[in-house]
Amino acid sequence: MIRKQLLWIWLCLLATSSALGQSTITGRITDASSGEALPGVSVTVKGKKSGTMSNTEGTFSLSVEDKKAILVFSYVGYIAKEIAVGNGKELLISLESDAQVLNEVVVVGYQSVNRRDLTGSVSSVGAKQLKDIPLTNAAEALTGRLAGVRVTTSEGAPGADVQIRIRGGGSITQDNSPIYIVDGIQIENALNFLSPQDIESIDVLKDASTTAIYGARGANGVVIITTKSGKGGKTTVSYNGSAGYREISRKLGVLNPYEFVRWQYERSRGSIADSTSFANQYSTWQTINQYQATPEVNWQDAVFGGKATYQNHNFIINGGSQNTNFNLSITANQEEGILKLSGFDRKLASYKLDHKASQAFRMGFNVRYLNQTIDGAGTSSTGSRTTNRLRHSVRYRPFLSDASAPIDTFDEDLFVASSQLINPLAMIEAEYRQQRTNNFHVSGYLQYQITKALSFRSTLGIDRNNQLTDLFFSKITPRARNASSLPVAQINQFTSQILNLTNIVQYGKKWKDQHDLNIILGQEVYQNDINSSSVETRYFPADISAEKALANMGLGAAPTGAQQPRPSTNIAPSNRLFSLFGRVNYAFKDRYIASIVTGKQIGRAHV
Hints:
Mean pLDDT: 80
Distance between the termini: 93 Å
């Protein structure tokens, strides 16, 4: 009983001493210029996880353990401030507005506005964050840099598709991808055709307030991309390059030859067929110890264990005069895939010119050409589990049947007994894929300042994309096994053309340093034409190469009772959209802001 009382007294003293070691700091946070209270200011202890927020009256209360602690005050649009606690019990904190952030210009639905005038959610990333990133894909450069924007790559192969989701998926039946607007022109998957070094800014519209002007098209978010323009003055020539290599940092643990064969023995017990198959492939239990001396092959090292080099080169000529500015950019990207026999090669050239014909009239155009080649079948594709190439590198037996051969020959019995596993190196050589893309884009604009407050702008753009994909499957692949175990070749072609015309009238006026009114009215025409075709030939000679088969699609001869697949074409109906839209922004004393957005889709036809 006495021990319990002493323990209770000791716990009370410990709690009291802990409480005495803490002190409560209170204070009030205001705007440095107006003196008004700032609610929602984050107050944290530097180097600690403890913190709080100011209430509607700008006051806060926070317990600290050390008088030497430093409090950090941060608020969106204001410069963060650090204050030492010292002996003070009540603090008066004034935060100064961050003019650089508030005056930052962002593109929101056909116009540029100051960030301080936004009423919706917009995330942005600029050229400074992108220019030094050694990546070939602009979408990958956004990873982790935009709040509420998720960037995922379908696989690790060079040139793999990158998916962007803005605050999750907005559709349960349609595509969840956002729409991309490049210099006022809507382009499908635009980030796949742009170099990070050519981008001036990316603004992502994420909520109904900012995307409403795009109607239903903006349901999954809008990514607005502005490319770099020329700067008046002395012509500058710049070069940005990088080179290096990539390698995987971790590999899965696998069994050595003896462990693998012993596991196969245990798995085969209880079945006569499995026991017979084990004896045919690995001998008997009495000789199993011989596999302790068998050289081990880690197929992960063999397939994607090397160092994949890459190099990026960007050459820019920028300059102009008082009335004419230009920017010429040439980019070359080469990247070896970590997976053997895969790679990426891209050549991109773009030219942008802006000309001021008079005080009231401006014009400009942008031309871009892309040539891109992607080699390799990748690590996986849609279909059954046998099409996943990573599976073979982990589950295939960790030794060669003939120690003198770099690749053991295809074993039909092993293929059937091991759940359709194939030597990983043989599998990579057996499947060939090359995708060649040519993209041509041209756009231009005319802008006329009717009065000091009223302006008109018209933008026209055409984007044409042509993609050719060659596929070849040798006799040992699952695809060929469905065609009498003879090679199969396929050529797919995809062509799309986008026409975009936008006309905008904008009125903006500020008077008495109190009222700021901005009105925008616009009309847009969007048309997308898509054509595709596919030719497949089966039953090629057993040992034909991929290059010869794709160059001679007529060499395949169907056996008696079988037929070759018919060529297929698909000319999709034109997707046409005509819309009207408008926005009204009003600000009073740069303090109260109202925004009204309206839009109507007049017609959408398929012809």
